[in-house]
């Protein structure tokens, strides 16, 4: 595979013959709902949601095997026919030979352009696909055909784009039957499909949507003919790669026609043209879905000329570049551009969820609970406006027992009751909301968000998912009420306390928090009865400390002396080591609390002394740390690490057994991050991770060693082949969090190794086989898997900005604490970061003219907008100063000097 090259500072890249690499796909989407994936041969799908697919749904294997693509044929008067998109039987047969056409892809955020040359025929094509900024659910396909020969060519162009027009469920369920619902008609613009009904998981419903492929020439001329039925286009025994209609130059229908009960295709034939040498002809195709006739008309009217499409493309480019408002300037321009795409990935996940690209991570779309919070990390850096309300609304998914809704609606703050089954409880779900809320407070200084109120989620599930409330009816609104029948509300702070305190008390036989359905690692899902997560027990220790600090800050800055919580929560605030040591008593206390929450709470409030509550929380955190240090440390000759889990037989998972060394990365990440590991233990953990988990050829730190068995008493991950997904792949998210944790503890060189190894693997296209960005994981061959939609992107952004560059908030103040290595500065000893903070644009420039290594330098002089700062304020710009600054870019120059 010829690797891509970056063409500018804004992530634009180019790659030669991209179709020679399997499984490549590129996202194109808008903000209005339509979202697609497009391959180098213009395969891939287009949809609005699970039940509204314009083009046929595709998985990664379909990208390789399916002949259903966005095609554009050029039929010559000598009988030759050429696919301008490379999607033909002839092009397929010439692949990997000297006869293969030359092609290249150039792409940037939400647009792709493929160029192709056929020297024998004397034709070249340039096909650009994008979703224009606006309200239309439309993809535009802009085709330019050029005569690159020395003689004139007579060409008849034909667009051929199969229309699927229904739910993804129908790909297998009732595929033929649902085609009988199709009502197809043609107009002077193109082909339209409006099914009579929809058959999917919602039942049988009248359909109100119209799917379409329409087109015109670059001058606005309409198509000359149509073939709207797929089997008529391909012919008996033909295919979309070698259709009879094209090969035999059969006639197309003209004018208005109606068809019913068949698979549809937007096959549009244009008038024959004479192309002189060097001359170019342009064609515009519109692919999409609309509900109202006026929407359809507006789409056809808006995009009718080459100029209109080119203007729309430029607007689209500008729109997305404006969204990606963080940039990096280091000694490695490839890294800077790689990070540009990492910046873009959280935006993609907001649009696509976890399931609407060809790697279907969650199956049917949407985001999970974790995603709601982690994706906000990137938003807080790039586009903080609106995040405050988003966070407050998200707390509406918390139950009073500390668990949370798992079915998340399409609207902000919408959570849907699980009407049928006992909800699976992920024990880590209480960790993420506080982590994100604290990041928000540090970025903004907005402590008052903690005192905003929201309701609690209520459905049939109670007692942390172990019991069912049969009195909850289907028509009931999923909100908790008090004894008087009023919707009960509590502060954001109360919600956070509920989540973390209930987690503290739900412990197993070894007095660590129960694993339940799983933790961050969803594939640890077979130890619900007796499994325990030491890893996230340590993580919750950090949260309890954070809550204590926030209470103290509320007392200091807001004068809050008493903490208001639900009366039922009062028994959870205990500072009793004897109780903490007794797992059974903790479980009994939790059960007693949960029983008071259902079917309704009293509505009464308790008022606790803030200092005592903070002391209580800090005591819990310290108890967890000491308990883990005493019980879970595994010591080898020259290294050591913490056990991360207990299995469903109550056995410690890690250590040495007959199958060799067993080590998992997750437990190391959160013991380091939460300061459970001492500095000496961090050094020992790094040695162990380097020895047992690090594999340079596949991208760095693996998630675990090879356990050598299908460990059915812990999780399905052990059924996966080793080196894939959760079973021993280099999992980008956890590796990034490992790097973040090491940076937090002052181990910058070690943290850099974790982040840099992922970056180097991703851009090593000979092995990773992916476009720019960080994938979910690298498999045992080092190939990047599950492109784009990964929580690792938000964490990598946050780590590079707040830890590597050391530019971060602290209760609204801007902190400067660089941890850049000498190799990250350019030849002039300069590194810079451009970002938004405190509603201002900033350029932070670090000057390291002596090329000093991390650990050898300190902050010397600091200049803000040309003014030198005093020594006692050089590493901090206060929120008050920031608020008083004039509009415009704030420039900070930090001179690094020898310690």
Q: Can you offer a commentary on this structure?
A:
With 899 residues, this protein is α+β, with helices and mostly antiparallel strands. Helices cover 29% and strands 25% of the residues. The protein contains 23 helices and 51 strands. The strands form 15 sheets. The chain has an 11-stranded antiparallel beta sheet with strand order 1-2-9-10-11-12-23-18-15-14-20. Strand 25 and strand 26 (415-416) form a beta hairpin. The two termini are 46 Å apart. The model has no long low-confidence stretch (mean pLDDT 95).
Features:
single chain; 899 residues; alpha+beta
Q: Would you tell me the overall average pLDDT?
A: 95
State the helical fraction: 25-40%
The proportion of strand residues reads: 15-25%
Radius of gyration: 29 Å
Number of helices: 23
Ordered list of secondary-structure elements with their pairings:
Layout: E1 5-6, E2 13-16, E3 26-29, E4 35-38, E5 46-49, E6 52-53, H1 60-65, E7 71-76, E8 81-83, H2 89-94, E9 102-108, E10 111-118, E11 123-130, E12 138-147, E13 153-163, H3 175-179, E14 183-186, E15 190-193, E16 197-200, E17 203-206, E18 210-217, E19 225-229, H4 230-234, H5 244-247, E20 258-260, E21 264-269, E22 273-275, E23 280-290, H6 293-302, H7 306-323, E24 327-329, H8 333-352, H9 369-382, H10 387-394, E25 407-408, E26 415-416, H11 431-444, E27 453-455, E28 461-462, E29 467-468, E30 489-491, H12 492-505, E31 532-533, H13 534-558, E32 562-566, H14 577-581, H15 583-597, E33 605-609, H16 610-631, E34 633-635, E35 640-642, E36 645-646, E37 655-657, E38 660-662, H17 665-673, H18 679-692, E39 694-695, E40 700-701, E41 730-731, H19 732-744, H20 748-763, H21 765-768, E42 777-778, E43 784-785, H22 792-804, E44 807-810, E45 813-816, E46 830-837, E47 840-847, E48 857-864, E49 867-868, E50 876-877, H23 879-883, E51 889-898
Parallel strand pairs: 47-51
Antiparallel strand pairs: 1-2, 2-9, 3-4, 4-5, 5-6, 7-8, 7-13, 9-10, 10-11, 11-12, 12-23, 13-21, 13-22, 14-15, 14-20, 15-18, 16-17, 18-23, 19-21, 24-46, 25-26, 27-30, 28-29, 31-36, 32-33, 34-35, 37-38, 39-40, 41-42, 42-43, 44-45, 45-50, 46-47, 48-49, 48-51
Helix pairs in contact: 8-9, 8-22, 9-11, 9-22, 11-13, 12-13, 13-16, 13-17, 17-19, 19-20, 19-22
């Amino acid at each position: 595979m010829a690797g891509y090259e970056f063409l500018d500072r804004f992530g634009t890249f180019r790659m030669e013959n991209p179709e020679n690499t399997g499984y490549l796909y590129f996202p194109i989407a808008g903000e209005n709902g339509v979202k697609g994936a497009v391959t180098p041969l213009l395969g891939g799908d287009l949809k609005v949601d699970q039940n509204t697919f314009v083009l046929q749904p595709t998985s990664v294997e379909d990208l390789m095997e399916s002949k259903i693509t966005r095609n554009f044929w050029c039929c010559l008067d000598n009988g030759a026919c050429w696919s301008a998109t490379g999607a033909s039987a002839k092009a397929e047969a010439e692949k990997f030979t000297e006869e293969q056409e030359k092609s290249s892809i150039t792409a940037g955020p939400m647009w792709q352009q493929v160029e192709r040359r056929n020297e024998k025929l004397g034709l070249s094509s340039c096909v650009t696909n994008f979703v224009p900024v606006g309200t239309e659910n439309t993809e535009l396909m802009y085709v330019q055909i050029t005569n690159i020969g020395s003689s004139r060519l007579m060409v008849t162009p034909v667009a051929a784009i199969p229309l699927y027009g229904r739910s993804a469920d129908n790909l297998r369920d009732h595929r033929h039957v649902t085609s009988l619902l199709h009502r197809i008609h043609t107009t002077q613009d193109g082909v339209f499909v409006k099914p009579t009904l929809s058959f999917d998981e919602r039942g049988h419903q009248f359909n109100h949507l119209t799917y379409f492929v329409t087109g015109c020439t670059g001058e606005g001329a309409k198509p000359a003919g149509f073939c709207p039925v797929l089997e008529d286009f391909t012919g008996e025994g033909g295919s979309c790669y070698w259709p009879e209609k094209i090969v035999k130059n059969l006639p197309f229908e003209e004018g208005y026609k109606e068809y019913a009960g068949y698979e549809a295709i937007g096959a549009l034939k244009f008038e024959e043209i004479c192309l002189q040498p060097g001359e170019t002809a342009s064609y515009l195709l519109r692919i999409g879905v609309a509900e109202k006739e006026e929407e359809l008309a507006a789409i056809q009217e808006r995009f009718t000329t080459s100029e209109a499409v080119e203007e729309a493309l430029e607007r689209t480019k500008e729109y997305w570049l404006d969204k990606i408002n963080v940039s990096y300037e280091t000694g490695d321009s490839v890294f800077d551009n790689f990070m540009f795409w990492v910046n873009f990935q959280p935006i993609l996940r907001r649009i696509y969820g976890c399931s609407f690209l060809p790697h279907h991570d969650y199956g049917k779309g949407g985001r999970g609970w974790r995603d709601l919070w982690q994706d906000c990390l990137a938003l807080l850096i790039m586009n903080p406006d609106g995040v405050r309300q988003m966070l407050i609304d998200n707390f509406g998914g918390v139950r009073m027992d500390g668990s949370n809704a798992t079915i998340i609606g399409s609207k902000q703050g919408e959570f849907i009751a699980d009407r049928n089954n006992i909800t699976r409880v992920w024990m880590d779900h209480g960790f993420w909301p506080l982590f994100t809320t604290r990041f928000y407070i540090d970025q903004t200084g907005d402590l008052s968000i903690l005192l905003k109120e929201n309701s609690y989620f209520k459905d049939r599930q109670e007692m942390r998912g172990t019991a069912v409330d049969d009195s909850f009816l289907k028509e009931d609104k999923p909100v908790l009420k008090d004894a008087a029948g009023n919707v009960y509300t509590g502060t954001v702070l109360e919600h956070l306390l509920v989540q973390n305190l209930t987690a503290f008390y739900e412990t197993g036989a070894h007095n660590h928090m129960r694993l339940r359905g799983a933790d961050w690692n969803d594939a640890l899902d077979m130890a619900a009865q007796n499994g325990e997560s030491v890893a996230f027990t340590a993580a919750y220790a950090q949260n309890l400390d954070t809550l204590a600090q926030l209470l103290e800050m509320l007392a200091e800055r807001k004068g809050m002396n008493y903490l208001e919580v639900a009366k039922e929560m009062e028994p959870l605030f205990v500072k009793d080591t004897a109780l903490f040591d007794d797992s059974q008593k903790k479980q009994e206390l939790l059960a007693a609390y949960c029983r008071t929450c259902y079917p309704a709470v009293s509505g009464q409030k308790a008022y606790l002394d803030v200092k005592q509550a903070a002391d209580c929380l800090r005591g819990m955190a310290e108890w967890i740390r000491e308990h883990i240090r005493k019980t879970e440390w595994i010591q080898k000759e020259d290294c050591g690490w913490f056990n991360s889990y207990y299995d469903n037989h109550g056995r410690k998972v890690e250590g040495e057994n007959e199958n060799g060394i067993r080590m998992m990365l997750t437990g190391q990440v959160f013991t380091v991050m939460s300061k459970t590991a001492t500095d000496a233990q961090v050094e020992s953990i790094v040695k162990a991770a380097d020895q047992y988990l690090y594999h340079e050829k596949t991208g760095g730190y693996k998630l675990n060693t090879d356990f050598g068995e299908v460990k059915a008493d812990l999780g399905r991950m052990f059924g996966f082949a080793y080196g894939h997904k959760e079973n021993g792949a280099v999992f980008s998210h956890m590796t990034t969090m490992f790097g973040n944790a090491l940076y937090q503890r002052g181990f910058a060189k070690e943290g850099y190794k974790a982040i840099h190894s992922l970056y180097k693997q991703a851009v090593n296209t000979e092995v990773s086989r992916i476009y720019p960005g960080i994938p979910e994981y690298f498999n045992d061959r080092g190939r990047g898997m599950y492109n784009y939609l990964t929580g690792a992107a938000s964490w990598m952004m946050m780590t590079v900005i707040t830890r590597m560059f050391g530019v971060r908030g602290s209760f609204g103040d801007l902190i400067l604490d660089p941890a850049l290595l000498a190799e990250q500065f350019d030849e002039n000893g300069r590194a810079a970061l451009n970002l938004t903070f405190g509603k201002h644009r900033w350029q932070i420039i670090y000057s390291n003219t002596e090329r000093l290594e991390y650990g050898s330098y300190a902050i010397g002089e600091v200049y803000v907008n040309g003014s030198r700062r005093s020594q006692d304020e050089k590493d901090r710009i206060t929120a008050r100063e920031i608020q008083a600054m004039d509009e415009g870019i704030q420039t900070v120059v930090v001179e690094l000097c020898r310690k």
